[in-house]
Amino acid sequence: MVIHRNSKKRFIVSATTFFSCFAVLITKTFLDMAFEIDPQTIRDLELFNDKPDGKSIFSFFNRTQTFGGKLQLKGLMQSPLDNMEELHRRSGIIRFFMHQGFTLPINSSQMDFIDHYFRVNKTVLKPNSIDGYFQKHFVRQNNKNDQYLIETGIEKMIFLLLALTGTLEKIPKIKVPVSLRQYFSLIQNYLDKPEIKAMLKELGPKPRKIKHYRYDYLFRHKYLLETRDLVKTIYLFDAFNAVAQTAISHQLCLADYSESPLPQLTITQLFHPFLEKPVRNSISTKAHQNICFLTGPNMAGKSTFLKSLGLAIYLAHLGFPVPATSMKTPIYKGLSTTINLPDDMGLGYSHFYSEVNRIKDVALHIQQKKQVFVIFDELFRGTNVKDAYEASLAVLEAFSCIKGSTFFISSHILEVAEKLHENNSILFRYFDASLKDQKLHYTYQLCKGISHERLGMYILQRESVIDILRSLK
């Protein structure tokens, strides 16, 4: 395959522009449904990463075969839902791709040619043999590349349609969910158009000599809109298939949803997908419990658990598979996490003031959305112990009265946990660590109750920090 440098550049720019606009349109349509997530949460959960080699949840799911499929996947992942019917529709489609072994007859090179074919700014070939002959043999030198791309694009479209015909023949044997039938109908209706059907019958299963001038009129003129809709559907299938294959490979599960007015969450064997050998943990809250207070020493697993939890909530509201064995969740209207909150030095804010502003933002978010899932890792780490204790106690007591939302809060201030121990709205969990043979041992297992381990001074002494400082006298 030879594509002139300038033509290739035009292709990349035009294809990127078209599909970016298409993905933005999809995203805007779904975001109007209003599950809300903010930039801080997107960063905390590492949902997207603009760096080429950076890990992200998007790259984790991105097993798409095509550029258009990649943009469709991104559009889906930027479109969380808060509607039971829509969530069932989307998860039902992914379940179909997971369990029915449905494969797509596509590859990246094929679809790249098809994309460019529909963006070649040249007059449609005239559908008769005389004009076709002159168009092929007497084309100007600077138009030869466009001519080649038109002819190759037509061939790739024909092979795609032949492959789809063979694929659809297997569909009646498979139970197709209602949410997918419209897409299969769109493909079938296209293949049943008299001229398309006649073309495929004439060419046979293995076409050799294709008279390009006879079919360009069908693809780029008479059925232009229908053909573009067909291609968009293929990209959507590519995106859903990528999600399904990721779920199978990493043993993810699809969530169940509850419409209970009081949020009650159950997740079994939760893990973070970035870890090679993750320790899985389960958590379950009762209807009257809207806060989980998490304690434990540094490096015991609190932050990883909170990231895993926030990620599971977000993926569940995409209708995507989650990193767990099972999950049942209420439908929230938003998600807010505060795990890696930076100082806002540009505005002259201290870390503590940034924390206060973050809590204010969360409060306004809840005021607007009513049902929000909230995570705070190490609440009020940016101030002195006395202020942190009083502020944490006041905030947690206020959170406990907001019954429509769910809060997972971690803290090192054990006195707060002990003060709130009798509050029935609060569930207490901790991650344990212990000293054995003068070595730290972490289980990374979630336990019931409150941790009383204080290992900070041990770590300081183990690293000989005090000895080094004393030697500097």
From TrEMBL:
Gene3D superfamilies: 1.10.1420.10, P-loop containing nucleotide triphosphate hydrolases. Keywords: ATP-binding, DNA-binding, Membrane, Nucleotide-binding, Transmembrane, Transmembrane helix. It holds the Pfam family MutS_V. The keyword Secreted does not apply. Residues 289-470 form the DNA mismatch repair proteins mutS family domain. InterPro entries: DNA_mismatch_repair_MutS_C (IPR000432), DNA_mismatch_repair_MutS_sf (IPR036187), MutS (IPR045076), P-loop_NTPase (IPR027417). The keyword Heme does not apply. This is DNA mismatch repair proteins mutS family domain-containing protein. It comes from Echinicola soli. The lineage of its organism: Bacteria, Pseudomonadati, Bacteroidota, Cytophagia, Cytophagales.
